[in-house]
Amino acid sequence: MYAPDVAFGTIDDLETALREAEYLPDRGLATALFLSLSLEKPLLLEGEAGVGKTESAKALARALPARLIRLQCYEGLDVSHAVYEWNYPRQLLHIRAAQEGTVSEDELFGPEFLIRRPLLEAIDSDEQVVLLIDEVDRADEEFEAFLLEILSDFQITIPELGTIKARRRPAVVLTSNRTRELHDALKRRALFHWIGHPSLEREVEIVRLRVPGIPERLAAEAAAFVRGLRALDLAKPPGVAETIDWAQALGALGREEIDAEVVEQTLGSVLKYREDIEAVRDETLTGLIEEARATASR
């Protein structure tokens, strides 16, 4: 049974702990995380890239505190990379040693020959764990189906060893960028929360928290400029992660506020496609800068 060492009696307690872990959730996300811990149910977070889905799981691990185990999903991910595989070289060495009479011929499919991957490591752990299954939408549907046993019963079946049940349930956070629709069977086993882009005021607060010492005006202008970029028709609108990266770059250059020259020089910290960078040149760039400055002055 999952029993955190640090008990969050209220959502406010959890919000305070996350803030101390340098993460600022809105009330909806804080509530979803609180319920996930209280009800011992996985939490599925969806939203655009860069809005803080992965960071929320990392912050939760710091806030508990707990060990973070991360499974990065990708096309072609299978059981041998996600759950376990047998240590065949060690098994061969054991067979040879047994033939030579230097060791006894024990069972070749025992725990000592098992290579534990992230999912098994999380399920079969005695310590407190936050299991992050990152970008689950990138994995194949077959792997998604395999997750059902883990997310519903917190157990893994290994044919040669039997069923391994969690002695201590991990807190589970799944993230999805919605590159494909997930199956209802997976969604039914988890709580759900959509993370959108934060309000301007909250994004400024996030920048100031994550970039200590940044001038207040620069933080406000950077957040307002990125917010203006999101209103354009871009191939990849920037997320909060890009706002933070850009603010760090501007701070490293010793800037107090933005201007056309520094924005052009550092635009690659915010936009990751050449077409998007070209789309905001000249008049568009000037207009965005003027609007950001005016917003920051209010």
Describe the structure.
α1 (11-20) crosses α2 and α10 crosses α14 (282-297). The protein has helices at residues 11-20, 27-39, 53-63, 79-82, 88-99, 118-123, 141-153, 184-188, 200-210, 216-230, 240-252, 260-266, 274-279, 282-297; strands at residues 43-47, 67-72, 84-86, 114-116, 129-134, 155-158, 162-165, 171-176, 191-195. With 298 residues, it is α/β, with parallel strands linked by helices. The longest helix has 16 residues, at 282-297. A hairpin with a 3-residue loop joins β6 and β7 (162-165).
Q: Radius of gyration in whole Å, from Cα?
A: 24 Å
Q: From the helix content, strand content and strand pairing, which structural class follows?
A: alpha/beta
What is the class of the largest domain in the CATH system? Alpha Beta
> In total, how many domains does the architecture comprise?
2
